[in-house]
Amino acid sequence: MAMTSQQRVLVIDDEKISLKVISDILRDDVEVILAINGEQGIRKAIELQPDLILLDVLMPGMDGYDTMAKLRHDVRTSTIPVIFITALNDSSHEEKALLMGACDYIQKPLYTNIVQARVRLHLQLTKQRKMLEELANIDPLTSLANRRRYEDVISSEWQSAIEHQECLSLLVVDIDNFKHYNDCYGHATGDKVLKQVASVLAMQVGLGEGLVARYGGEEFVVLLPRFSQQEATKVAHQCMLEIERLNLCYHHGGETGQVTVSVGGATCYPQNSDLLCEFFDRADNKLVQAKNTGKNKILWDVSDKLNVPVK
Ligand SMILES: Nc1nc2c(ncn2[C@@H]2O[C@H](COP(=O)(O)OP(=O)(O)OP(=O)(O)O)[C@@H](O)[C@H]2O)c(=O)[nH]1
């Protein structure tokens, strides 16, 4: 079984000869990144996000344990698996490394087949873990992010907006009278509509600009970091327009209806972690109000408490 070529292994060792030996063992199968000390290793781990780190225990200055502690402490590197490599053959060192969260331990002298087998095993496990994480974060019907992913992203965007004093906008989008559509054509056709609406929403938000997620049922959220109320309202209008252009009609009670959406929106400059739940509720309350006052419209929260920027 070959290792996947895209996977990256960072090797941190103060001895150039060890770096060369390990690099020679692995470089046909993976991209190898080298670091000559702990500080450089941490910098490269943050910047290049390797799939696995091989870390020498005995290094002058910051040793392997100190490096490991720093890697574990930083959210950007805390989940990257680390294999310790050392010439020490005392079981207490091995125990210490494993207790610190190392996934494995390789003793010097290095045997090519052992290094390859262990690296291969842990890269395979990393790949499986990433696949599971992805599955846990994606809505299977629409392939959009799911509610769990949205909750993670909004928490980190909220914190980042507090730190950088930036604004954040949120749209809660709900298909109008979707029950009528389902009653008319059945659940399977209703599913196709959910997929179409999802891809329209995803198309309106550029890569890296924000997050579109299926919140549940026929409700979606569009999170737009750094979008002002005016900019976010423009996105909401465009979404409504494009959904109308799908021209999805249904019949109900002798009348013909068309698939439209209602949108509740909110914008704020986050200042306090406690107001995060309130933020969603404010957008959602506006959605409810839009539903109760005729649907197919956008209503925006204008709450002083959340410091909505005045445009
Ligand atoms: N096809 C399909 N329908 C779904 C799915 N999830 C929720 N629904 C349907 O969405 C409909 C939601 O009904 P309601 O809550 O009454 O909402 P609505 O008919 O859209 O009415 P308003 O929201 O008030 O405009 C129900 O018919 C659900 O069965 C899904 O995954 N697939």
Layout: helices, strands, pairs:
Elements: E1 8-12, H1 16-26, E2 31-35, H2 38-48, E3 52-56, H3 64-73, E4 82-86, H4 91-99, E5 104-107, H5 112-137, H6 147-164, E6 168-175, H7 178-185, H8 187-204, E7 211-216, E8 219-225, H9 229-245, E9 249-252, E10 255-258, E11 261-268, H10 276-292, E12 298-300
Parallel strand pairs: 1-2, 1-3, 3-4, 4-5, 11-12
Antiparallel strand pairs: 6-8, 6-11, 7-8, 9-10
Helix pairs in contact: 2-3, 7-8, 8-9
The structure holds guanosine-5'-triphosphate.
How would you sum up this structure, described in words?
There is one protein chain. With 311 residues, the protein is an alpha/beta fold. The chain has ten helices and twelve strands. It has helices at 16-26, 38-48, 64-73, 91-99, 112-137, 147-164, 178-185, 187-204, 229-245, 276-292, and strands at 8-12, 31-35, 52-56, 82-86, 104-107, 168-175, 211-216, 219-225, 249-252, 255-258, 261-268, 298-300. β7 and β8 form a beta hairpin. The longest helix is centred in the middle third of the chain and has 26 residues, at 112-137. It is elongated and about 80 Å long. Bound molecules: guanosine-5'-triphosphate (GTP). The site of guanosine-5'-triphosphate (GTP) has 16 residues, from β6, α7 and α8.
